């Protein structure tokens, strides 16, 4: 559906032809349209997952730094 939208079909046409609400099609387009160019592109959902993982890893590093400081004092 997203590919059909990007190939020039309007959301209204797709909604009528496939019986899917326009709101749902807009949601799919937003969710599954790649960000970036070429092989480096990703969907917003993939980007959000990477950002979440990055935040988790930063928190882990901070915890390990604090633990190292505690053990270095002993």
Automatic annotation (TrEMBL):
Query: Which InterPro entries does the annotation name?
Result: Homeodomain-like_sf, Transposase_8
Pfam annotation, one family: HTH_Tnp_1
| Annotated GO MF terms | DNA binding; transposase activity
GO biological process annotation, one example: DNA transposition
What is the recorded name of this protein? Transposase
């Amino acid at each position: 559906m997203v590919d059909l939208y990007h190939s020039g079909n309007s959301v209204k046409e797709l909604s009528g032809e496939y019986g899917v609400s326009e709101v749902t099609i807009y949601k799919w387009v937003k969710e599954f349209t790649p960000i970036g160019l070429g092989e480096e592109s990703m969907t917003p959902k993939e980007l959000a997952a990477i950002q979440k993982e990055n935040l988790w890893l930063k928190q882990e590093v901070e915890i390990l730094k604090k633990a190292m400081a505690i053990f270095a004092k002993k």
